[in-house]
From TrEMBL:
This is Pantothenate synthetase. Beta-alanine binds at Q80. It is found in: Cytoplasm. Belongs to the pantothenate synthetase family. Pathway: Cofactor biosynthesis; (R)-pantothenate biosynthesis; (R)-pantothenate from (R)-pantoate and beta-alanine: step 1/1. Its main location: cytoplasm. GO terms for molecular function: ATP binding; pantoate-beta-alanine ligase activity. It catalyses: (R)-pantoate + beta-alanine + ATP = (R)-pantothenate + AMP + diphosphate + H(+). Homodimer.
Amino acid sequence: MSMDPLMSAISQINSPENPMDVVRSIADLRDRVGDWKAKGLKVGLVPTMGALHEGHLSLVRRLAQDVDRVIVSIFVNPAQFGPQEDFAAYPRQEALDCLRLQGTPADLVYAPAADVMYPPGFLTSVRVGRITDDLEGAVRPGHFDGVATVVLKLFTQSGCDAAIFGEKDYQQLVMIRHMVRNLDLPVEILGGAIVREADGLAASSRNVYLSAPQRKIAGKLNVILADLRAKALAGAGAGADLGALEQMGTRALIDAGFDRVDYVSFRDAQSLETITTLNAPARLLAVARLGPTRLLDNLAI
Ligand code: AMP
């Protein structure tokens, strides 16, 4: 009789067939990293919330090109979820995640419990200004403070030399770059390209929330953004009206079947400030909703 895939995955954790190393305490993590550093090895970190997909695995592979050892952290960070958000429902599948990582250059999984990260009496929060005020920050108050705080803790806990973040969460990547510069952290930050499914939908742990009809609509987000980018570039010489294009994009998303559009916005690629003309590297960012599920996407211009 064949075993349930999840049970089979669980039974293989820490078995000889699954050499994926998992540590759960800061002391064990530091021991491991200390041994590597004593040998002069460069250590990289891939922060994740688990439910790993090809997007996460691509970050592991990309980072391994620049460092000698790769740590993947798996921690569903309560501090970055709002009270009405999906913290409880967020997919948790550590055993399967470890199996997925076996085919990658990952050397170690760091999966702390919530009270390791936030022991009783925890009071500190890290806040990066301005960049976190709008876009995701406007819709999810406190979200970026939760991300900045946990990422800074992951850096200091691991002592990593480098870390990689996906361009999928572009505002987050820009925020982390600012935090590292502003706090003089000795961590090199890399950005990883967005990995997409066959129809162009950005891979996301939250895509499992979509019903079959919603999944069809979801594939139109990147198509509509690519069309807006083409229109912006075509009109660039004559001074494209980016505000009108943002409105056109919002309408196109609603017409395509999305229930709500949180934003469609052309921004400066580095500062994330709003722009009215395309005369420097820019980014088109959007979030559209299907039911309660928010789908993020963005494109370089
Ligand atoms: P998460 O587990 O959703 O917190 O994501 C962990 C990291 O993976 C973040 O740096 C994300 O930006 C990145 N990531 C998530 N989805 C993708 C994707 N489709 N392509 C590239 N990176 C991604």
